[in-house]
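Quick one, T. Sequence first:
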Amino acid sequence: MTTTKSRITTELDFDRPGKQVSYLRMIHSDDRHAFGAIPVPIACLAHGQGPTVFLSAGNHGNEYEGQIILHDLIRNLDPAALRGRLIVMPALNYPAVLTRSRTSPLDQLNFNRVFPGDAGGSSTLALAHYVQTEILPRAQAAADLHSGNPSNVYVPCAYIHGGGGQDFVRRKIAAARAFGAPWTIIAKETSNTGSMTAACDRLGVLMISTELGGGGTIDRRNLEIGRAGLRRLLHHLGVLAAPGPGEHFHDTRLIVPRGGTGSVMVPSHGLLEPTCEPGDRVKAGDLAGRLWSIGELDQPARELRFAMAGVVCARRVHVLAERGDYVAQIADEVSERELLG
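Structure tokens:
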């Protein structure tokens, strides 16, 4: 049964000006934690009057560019540069960050699939409930910084969903243009009702995500795109007084993923040799990759080809692959007019 009282507490005062660094104390008991609290890091930076923006990374614990960007921001941003408030959680799914995993090791749940959460549920559900009820209602906008997980790599992009109506989507696109990544991926509808994006849409909080590379490591170019883009975004949202840097700015191109129809799937177990990169423009019939049989040494590589034209928005990193994995995903480039009519 869902309860309304959270077992998560914090000493942080969201209404106090200046910089505060604290924790959410999430009560948890299992074989490892018989009686104790999981300390989920949180910071609040505030100065003057203005909007509140929630910034998060580590939603999936093995995606790293966003985590470093927010650690940098907390340590080096002077609150006097603000006209409003930032609530910052660089290790949002803290247990998953510690174990370098996509899902929480405490309950095996994906934080980005469980909103609105449950105060009386497992740790991931309780944390999602706290974000839903205590943090997002304070915010007018949010940025959740993702990268492709260790198995794939994306084009460096802002990532927005088409929920909330056309005017709301136009505001999201304007925010993505201010962020200035080379690409902006637009999912036509909110892809999962349990995502934080869906929670923001329901609450009227303007949110953009990112996909800044991936592969389970740090891409320095994507790190700088994210650092500069976040400063520009915060200025666009009205919470950072100074304009963001002009470096690493791109006139972003809008792309809409094709979903399953635009994915080249692996048909059997083998070693995957990719022959495309994120950002490539491909035609139907172009080679996406070669699959080499591990045990059948007399068999040639199996050629895996794109079924349609488009822009490669993501490709697989891991070489060992099995039936059902994807080689690459493609998207269609569109104009804002084509997207919204």
